[in-house]
Design goal:
single chain; 512 residues; globular
Length: 512
């Protein structure tokens, strides 16, 4: 037993070292990286405490029109505009008793401010990091979002209990208390207190946003020229050194930016990846909307739906730094490929068992898959996007996801009504397993299609030829050698090419 125990300790020590080196690689990053994390946390808390999911739908819709604006104005300016507008909007929502003003805030100004804040932070992470620590940085960025969500829950409960007790309603009648004062007299209700906490978080975010500079981190010359360091290693001291310079915004009209982006082969492959992952990304909407109603209808009002749901952010906070540190040398597209299989297969626990244990296994497996692929989707998006056109890439890629969200909500309601109704007539039984089989069958399509179309989305012959020609012209390697290096080493992976080039996706060998 001593040998296996020693092997386990050695493995855990290696994983700990990778995570520690990941944090160490970010230690010399510019302050803007940590400001981006702070803004992400504050914005995540404000968003999750507000808990208006249709705001996310609308922010995606507005994002279709603001992608070129982000590219033309830059990260710093967009963050300032976005967070100031978000702050003013939340103040108006907190203070108003007018339904008309509320609708304008919810349907126009808040979504518009969100699309100038949330996507811009992702672009900022790319520009504030180097090739060696970018994968870990995006993983930590994803963790910060989940920490914001996790913090929001207990604070929302605490504010609700406090103001219910202060108003003397004994913790009951939340909806009635708020509804009675929506159009006439302004009263500090529990919901307004929750919104106020988001206003305070947003106020701090405004101050942070105004301290952000329009900069870019370039790879250190020693890092570029060194051939002795291990590929993908995060603990190379030279890798943490970086050159910070003023970022020069790209010029051109919105039409020119859009037309140039659409004509790029990389963008078309990127758009295909976005389309292929739609189904598996929709399982998270079922986690938010379908699972709680399913649990209440199958197991009763007192079922621990909140505790089961909390497994997801808790696991993400723990797993993502470990997974991203351990797989930083693996191409993001490969992680997306395998991770989507794990997430998609998680649904089938509920397809074969109607039990609380199946719900727990579903959330655990889904969270493991999410930790594998979802943070790397940020990495993949920012890596394949041409420098200075990241906003346009994100905006155009959000179109299919936005269009898919609406029918998913309708499908969830339809499936619940048909297979898991709230009220049963005499002799009627629920067929919840069938409902989850339908959801699982739709979800598993995503990873299967990624496998079938792998030759195209990973670059194909076009990507290999362009990458090989580039290396040969530099006198570094031959065409045959470059393909082998693309498979076996992250040093020549598209993940580690300079941001100033139009990145070509490599062909990744799939056979064992």
């Amino acid at each position: 037993m001593a040998a296996p125990s020693a092997a386990v300790r050695a493995y855990l020590q290696r994983q700990y070292d990778k995570v520690a080196s990941g944090f160490a690689s970010l230690s010399r990053s510019p302050p803007e990286l940590w400001k981006a994390y702070a803004l992400k946390f504050l914005d995540s808390y404000a968003y999750f405490s507000f808990a208006l999911v249709f705001t996310l739908f609308l922010s995606d819709d507005f994002g279709l029109f603001t992608g070129t604006v982000i590219d033309k104005l830059g990260v710093a300016t967009c963050l300032r505009i976005g967070f100031v507008l978000s702050f003013l909007t939340r103040v108006a929502i907190f203070a108003t008793t007018s339904k008309e003003i509320l609708l304008v805030c919810l349907l126009i100004t808040l979504p518009f401010s969100n699309c100038l804040g949330i996507p811009v932070l992702t672009v900022g992470i790319r520009r504030y990091t180097t090739d060696t620590n970018r994968g870990f940085a995006f993983g930590l960025f994803y963790v910060v979002m989940n920490v914001g969500a996790l913090v929001a829950g207990p604070l929302v409960d605490a504010l609700t209990i406090y103001f219910h007790g202060k108003n003397g309603d004994g913790g009951e009648g939340n909806g009635e208390a708020d509804t009675a004062n929506t159009s006439s007299e302004w009263v500090m209700t529990p919901n307004r207190a929750i919104i106020l906490s988001g206003v305070l978080a947003n106020f701090i975010a405004v101050g942070v946003a105004f301290s952000v500079r329009e900069i870019k981190v370039g790879a250190n010359e020693k890092q570029e020229s060194s051939k002795e360091s291990r590929p993908g290693s995060l603990d190379n001291k030279d890798a943490s050194k970086s050159n910070v310079s003023q970022f020069q915004l790209t010029k051109g009209s919105s039409y020119q930016i859009l037309s140039e982006t659409i004509r790029e082969p990389n963008f078309r492959r990127f758009l295909v990846v976005c389309l292929l992952t739609i189904n598996v990304r929709m399982v998270f909407r079922h986690l938010d909307g379908t699972l709680p109603k399913y649990m209440i209808r199958e197991f009763g009002e007192n079922t621990p739906k909140g505790k089961v749901y909390a497994i997801n952010p808790a696991m993400i906070i723990v797993l993502v730094p470990v997974v991203t540190a351990a797989t930083t040398s693996v191409d993001p597209l490969v992680m997306i490929h395998y991770g989507t299989y794990v997430s998609a297969l998680s649904v089938f626990f509920l397809a074969f068992s109607t039990s609380l244990s199946a719900c727990v296994l579903f959330v655990i497996t889904l969270s493991i898959g999410e930790a594998i692929w979802s943070p790397r989707l940020y990495d993949y998006t920012m890596t394949v996007a041409k420098e200075g056109r990241e906003g346009t890439y994100m905006a155009l890629s959000s179109a299919p996801l936005f269009l898919a969200k609406l029918p998913v909500g309708f499908l969830s309601g339809l499936l619940l009504q048909r297979y898991c109704p709230e009220h049963l007539e005499e002799g009627q039984v629920r067929h919840s397993k069938t409902m989850w089989r339908v959801i699982g069958s739709a979800t598993i399509v995503s990873p299967i299609l990624i496998t079938l179309l792998w030759g195209y989305i990973s670059g194909g012959s076009e990507g290999r030829a362009r990458g090989s020609d580039t290396m040969t012209s530099n006198g570094e390697t031959s065409m045959e050698e470059s393909e082998q290096l693309l498979v076996d080493s992250s040093e020549h992976s598209y993940q580690h090419k300079p941001l100033t080039t139009n990145i070509s996706l490599p062909k990744v060998r799939t056979e064992r």
